[in-house]
Structures are given as structure tokens and as C-alpha cells.
């Protein structure tokens, strides 16, 4: 049961001029399932991505990085579900590349102009022949209005499609930002989530899209966790087609650039949070905010320790204010000179612990009231500096175990 | 359901001359439960411990360290369940110390000669008055043959008591080693487990017991994980009463010293593994062995990444050879220059992956056969050096979630 998440209304997803999406059934793992998506982007688009830091990164992730580095102008993306093409060695690279060759042939592109993405089971050979056979149907289906269908086609254990869209005005021109994402387990992105695609028609000066995708990932996908497992296939890509007609952005620090960046982060954050709201077995959406650290990094480290603790997560599932478990996680987060006698803990507006001990005014019924909510903010103050960081996570339920014990069967 | 673990037979637990144990019901959290244990050790005993690295370490852990540092000769240990006295601030220290004062008064000892231990719920005030009121009954019960009862009295969510015992001969003298441990959740010890006590009557040269407890912990309790949560109360203590009459050991590198150390590690390893076998919700006992690393540390880091992955653990629970999840965990273990094209993976005797890809000879039914076993060894070879490390863990089941969602209610 996703937490406060609805399937997107197709009418709310604004097309992005220059971007078309086509979906087909290729039978990658199961028949009669939309499992193949092709996205084409107009000539001159800027494309950049951030990818998993997992050293077992999948073959398509390796090819994406190689093709982007070749700098020959990305013109198409091809995404399959049902098979991650990870842990597949040299053979996996050959199969992923052959998909790029096949799509390139249809579109009269070099294989390096195609970026491949895969998601699904690890360590099984990619059925690249079935994917190639499915391409014509996907190409026949290409249209600008297909964002909602694509959001559904990239799902694996997701229970709902995830998409977000926004329009802003830059120098009198309407600029659109639309994105989709997928992921529900093996989520502790470390560059990006399983798969996230965001497109805008904003015009950017050359080279600027890379810093935009990095910053947006750091403010969105790099702040979520479901089970602490960093995937082999995490990829987040931004496409900027430049068709909006705005004066090209030259910096994100002020003016139109700052407005665009804020809007992109807003959409990326919605996409990232949607993944947590639809986390495997999730019944609660939890924001963990750590303040008063010396650096943002140490705040994030403490926030992740809390967000990854199975004991904290099961307590949230049970709505049990067994909040000492949060203090324990703060304690083992790895800050070796942390002073426990300074730590404050809030649950929403309820002060639970002050200076490392239970707040004498804290009443269990106040904790219990907040724990029953579907959305909860945990606030920890380390009182040793001025930095802050927030991460988003969900609880750990029977359903998580069930989903992951049954996933392949 | 513990995995291949039985309650110890009291007759198999050899008394250690110089060590007496007394148990009582103090009503710490619930009535009619043995929740208070006193252990006295004879004058001249050497005592040393290793304790949690959690910065939110409990009040009794802080006092243990202080009292050991005072070097006034430990003569008694007092252990309560039902309350961890952690996250309790200054007031927690006062309450823990008052327990040492109370026991010291009965035994005519300075409070610093008493080591306090607590385990149970975090962030609730310790009912030190009820503990003090229970001391006379525990003292009346003191006897050398009480190890099995004490093993039961220190349990919390454990389903079975944990104890091990061994006799060796040093220079013609019989030397006994007997220990008990407890713990089933919040287990990723980082110095020691929730609670482990081991005693021997071996005579040691002054100061030698500290290196023994450190080495034994590193070979036992520091190699297990259930849920990755490092407890606030982890403590492992070794007592050496010196009553065996052997020539005092002066080094553990050879001769009698090496024999003793091996026997102590053997008992400590059994106690540590018993904790995993009785891990919350455990249905399988899994050894994760990583070979071919550059250092033992990096091997342990990879082994822990596998052992902590909820996806790996749920796959074991389901007996599903979804073994790509293990490769993914190897990939995100944090070794930044790891070469995925070198990694081999075995499940017991079955070669699953070679050089980072699926072994063409691997058949799913072979993986499935091993996955059904109650005891499984995962072997990863990094092929980049000569170091190895093994850690022990269990699977993640519905029952884990149930136990931790219900723990306080």
C-alpha cells in the first residue's frame, strides 16, 4: 500500500517538445507485459546522467557512461524491465551493445548515440533478440504524450507508476519539465535511483546539463533509502531539448537559471519521494532530519544510520514509540567524537530526548500519537555545528519480507 | 526457531573454581521472571572487558570502563535484564552506580570493585530500587554450579540460553573455561555482543587478560551480525581466577598460552555463533567467507555488506537462489577500486559466478539444493590478495519483523 501516492493523471504530465516515447511488449521475462520503452530526443539536445557507484554496475550502466563520454550527441534511450543485465560479465556488455546497434539501425544513428537501461533480476542473460524484435512496435508507438504509459512500462515491483511535471516561465517563454521514475526495493541510491528520466525543453549553454543532473540527484534520489541496498543499475538522466525558445541558461546561481534549477529539483524530489512512498511493503513515509552537525556529510551519515536500522523501521511499522532505538542508531552512525550528552530528539513536534536522556516532560502517549501517522518527521539535533541534512525512508513490514522472498517465483 | 541450537545441559557446564553465580527475580520490567544475576569472583582474579563502540553507550557500559580503569580489583558483576539503562543521561549513571554501591555494601567491597550490566529496553529509567531489593535473594543463591541458570536469567528476546564450556590441560593441571552469552536482535557487535561472560581458572601473568579478551572478541563476537544494529550495551568480559594451579601464562604466542587462547576462542566462538543461531526470526545459519582480499579488513567489509543486505537475507529465508543479490552487495561494499570482472562466488561447493559473470556450468537446481539447507556457506573470492575473513549471520524472516514490531507490547 503506497503512502499518500496516486497514479499520475496523464493530463497532468505536460509533453516536452523534442521528446517522444514509445512502448511495446517484448516478452523479456513474461509475456503480455509492457516491458520495452524507447525515448527519442531531438537533434541538439543536451543529455547527461549520474549512475550507481556499485562496483558491480550493470552492463547498460557501463555502456551509458561510455556512450555519454563519446560525446556524439545522444538521440535515443532504450529501457527494458524484467532483466537487469548485471553480474553478466563480458557477455552482458555484448548483449547491451547489440540492443544499441539494433535501435541505431532503425533510427539511422550510431550505436553510441543510444543509451541502454535495464532493470529486473540480476545475473541472468539479457534476451537481446526479443528486445530487438520488439523495437519496431515501440518505434511505431512514439509520441510526445506517452509519459504516463512509459511510467507504467518501466515498473518492476512498483505498485504505482511515478511521474511528475511542472511548467515555469523563463523570459516570457513557457518551459516544461516532466519526469518519470521507478524503484521499490534495492533502494539506497548512490548517485541516482534505479531509473529516473527527466526532460525539459529549456535551452542551456553547452555542458550545463551535467551539473544540473548532479545537483538534482544530490537533492532528491541521493536522499532516499528503502532497504539500504545500492542497486547495480541506478541511473538518472536529464534531457534538455532546448526547444522552449528561452535565452540559453548560462548559470544556475541566479535569475532564470536558479528558477529552472529549483523547478528541476522540485520534480526530481517528487519522483524520488514517490519511490519511497511506494517502497516495498511501506506503510509509512518518514523524513529523517539531522541538524546541528559540523558538516552536511555527517548529518546525512546519521540520518542514513537511522533510516537503515531494521529496529527503527519495524518500530515505525508497529507504531510503537520505542524511540531509544533511534538514539542507538545515532550512536553507531560512525561519528567517533559524538557527545551523547548533547543529543536532542523530536518526533514531529514532540520533544522525546534532551541532552542524550529522556525528556522528563515526554509522555508516551504523545509519542504514540505521532507514531500512528502515515507521515512522520524524525528530528535529531547533534548540537555541534550548523549543518543539516534530510533523508526519506519508509518502515519495514511483513510485506517487505514477503515481496522479497517471493520476487522471482 | 533457533538453527541447530539446543539449550545447554547443566552437567556439560563445568564450574570454574573461584566463580559463583546467584540469580533472583527483581521485577525489573515484569514480575516472576529471573532478571537479576550476581557473579562473584575470588580475590586476585584478573578481569577485563571489551565494550560497544556505540557513542550512545549505556550508563553501565560507561561505569564498567571507569571501574576497570580504576584498577582496584573487580570482585563482582551484577546483571539485569528488562531495562538497558541506555539513553538515560546523567540520571542513568547515578542509578547504575547506586546498584554498585548496594552490592558493594553487601559484599564489603568498594563500588568500583563491582561491574554493572544491563540489557533490555532503551531510554527508560532503571528501577534501581527494585534491583537493590532483589540483591539479598541473588546473594543467597550464589554457587559455582549456577552457569545454566544464569544463562537463562540474562535472556531477553533469546529463545534459548547460550553457554559453552571446555576443559584443557596445562602443565598437568586441569583448566576450565566456561562462558554464557545473550542476544538475538540489535546485533552487529563492534567490540562485543550484547552480553558475554567467560571465566577460566587459568593463571595469567598480570595484565594479560586484556589482550585475551580483545583477541577472543575479534575472533568471535566481532564477526557476527543479525540486523546490523550495534547495541548500546555490548559487553564481553573475561574473568581469570588463577585457581587452576598452572604455571602463570606469560604469552599467548606459543606453548600453554597458545593452547589456552585457542580454547578461549573456541568457547567464545560457540557463544557468538549461538547468538546468530538464535537470531530473531532466524531459520538459517549462514557463514560468509571472503577470500582473496588485500587486507582482512576489506574482506570483513565485503562479508558484512552481504550479511547485512535485507535482499540477500530474504532470499535465504525463501530458499531462493536469487544470487545476483550477493554480487550487488559485493559491489556496494565500499571497495572503490574493486574489479567486478575478477569476482568468483560459491554457495557451499557450487560455483555460481566466475570472473564477475554467471558460471556457464551453473545450474539453478544446484543453487536451489544448497539454499534449502539450514546451514550455508557463501564464499566470495576477490582475487586481489591473500587475506580472508568470515562472518556469521542469519536470514531475515516474517518472524524478525513480528518480534521487533511487538517487542515492547
Largest interface: A-B, 72 and 72 residues
Please identify, by name, the CATH architecture of the largest domain in chain A: 4-Layer Sandwich
Question: What is the residue-mean pLDDT of chain A, rounded to a whole number?
Answer: 89
Helix/strand/pairing category of chain A: alpha+beta
- How many structurally independent domains of chain A? 2
Low-confidence stretches of chain A: none
End-to-end distance of chain A: 21 Å
CATH topology of the largest domain in chain A, anyone?
L-amino peptidase D-ALA esterase/amidase
Description of the molecule:
Two copies of one chain form a homodimer. With 409 residues, chain A is an alpha+beta fold. The first copy, chain A, folds into two domains: 10-277, L-amino peptidase D-ALA esterase/amidase (4-Layer Sandwich), CATH 3.60.70; 285-406, ArgJ beta chain, C-terminal domain (Ubiquitin-like (UB roll)). Chain A contains eleven helices and 15 strands. Chain A has helices spanning 59-70, 89-107, 128-140, 147-153, 208-218, 255-277, 296-308, 310-317, 324-331, 364-371, 398-406, and strands spanning 19-24, 36-41, 46-51, 76-83, 114-121, 162-170, 173-182, 195-200, 235-240, 285-293, 344-347, 350-354, 357-358, 375-381, 387-394. The first copy, chain A, has a six-stranded mixed beta sheet with strand order 13-12-11-14-10-15. In chain A, helix 7 (296-308) packs across helix 9. At the A-B interface, helix 2, helix 8, helix 9, strand 13 and helix 11 of A face helix 2, helix 8, helix 9, strand 13 and helix 11 of B. Chains A, B: Catalyzes two activities which are involved in the cyclic version of arginine biosynthesis: the synthesis of N-acetylglutamate from glutamate and acetyl-CoA as the acetyl donor, and of ornithine by transacetylation between N(2)-acetylornithine and glutamate. Chains A, B: One of its GO terms (cellular component) is cytoplasm. Chains A, B: Belongs to the ArgJ family.
Amino acid at each position: 500500500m503506497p503512502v499518500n501516492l496516486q497514479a499520475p493523471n496523464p493530463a497532468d504530465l505536460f509533453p516536452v517538445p523534442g521528446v517522444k516515447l514509445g512502448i511495446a511488449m517484448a516478452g523479456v521475462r513474461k509475456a503480455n507485459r509492457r516491458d520495452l520503452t524507447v525515448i527519442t530526443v531531438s537533434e541538439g539536445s543536451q543529455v547527461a546522467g549520474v549512475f550507481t557507484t556499485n562496483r558491480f554496475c550493470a552492463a547498460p550502466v557501463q555502456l551509458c557512461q561510455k556512450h555519454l563520454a563519446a560525446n556524439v550527441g545522444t538521440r535515443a534511450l532504450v529501457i527494458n524491465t524484467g532483466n537487469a543485465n548485471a553480474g553478466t560479465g563480458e557477455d552482458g556488455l555484448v548483449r547491451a551493445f547489440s540492443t544499441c546497434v539494433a535501435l541505431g539501425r532503425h533510427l539511422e544513428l550510431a550505436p553510441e548515440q543510444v543509451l541502454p537501461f535495464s532493470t529486473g533480476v540480476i545475473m541472468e542473460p539479457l534476451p537481446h533478440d526479443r528486445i530487438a524484435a520488439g523495437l519496431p512496435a515501440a518505434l511505431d508507438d512514439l509520441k510526445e504524450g506517452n509519459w504516463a504509459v512509459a511510467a507504467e512500462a518501466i515498473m518492476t515491483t512498483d505498485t504505482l507508476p511515478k511521474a511528475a511535471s511542472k511548467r515555469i516561465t523563463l523570459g516570457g517563454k513557457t518551459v516544461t519539465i516532466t519526469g518519470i521514475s521507478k524503484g521499490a526495493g534495492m533502494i539506497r541510491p548512490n548517485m541516482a535511483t534505479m531509473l529516473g528520466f527527466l526532460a525539459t525543453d529549456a535551452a542551456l549553454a553547452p555542458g550545463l546539463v551535467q551539473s544540473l543532473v548532479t545537483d538534482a540527484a544530490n537533492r532528491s534520489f541521493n536522499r532516499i533509502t528503502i532497504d539500504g541496498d545500492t542497486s547495480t543499475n541506478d541511473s538518472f538522466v536529464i534531457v534538455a531539448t532546448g526547444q522552449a525558445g528561452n535565452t540559453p541558461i548560462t548559470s544556475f546561481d541566479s535569475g532564470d537559471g536558479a528558477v529552472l534549477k529549483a523547478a528541476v529539483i522540485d520534480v526530481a524530489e517528487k519522483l524520488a519521494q514517490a519511490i519511497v512512498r511506494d517502497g516495498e511493503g511501506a506503510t509509512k513515509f518518514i523524513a529523517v532530519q539531522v541538524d546541528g552537525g559540523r558538516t552536511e556529510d555527517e548529518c546525512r551519515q546519521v540520518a542514513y544510520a537511522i533510516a537503515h536500522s531494521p529496529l527503527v523501521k519495524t518500530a515505525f511499522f508497529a507504531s510503537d514509540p520505542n524511540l531509544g532505538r533511534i538514539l542507538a542508531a545515532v550512536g553507531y552512525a560512525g561519528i567517533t567524537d559524538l557527545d551523547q550528552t548533547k543529543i536532542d530528539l523530536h518526533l514531529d513536534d514532540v520533544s522525546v530526548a534532551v541532552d542524550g536522556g529522556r525528556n522528563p516532560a515526554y509522555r508516551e502517549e504523545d509519542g504514540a500519537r505521532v507514531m500512528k501517522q502515515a507521515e512522520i518527521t524524525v528530528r535529531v539535533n547533534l548540537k555541534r555545528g550548523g549543518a543539516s541534512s534530510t533523508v526519506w525512508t519508509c518502515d519495514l513490514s511483513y510485506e517487505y519480507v514477503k515481496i522479497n522472498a517471493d520476487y522471482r517465483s
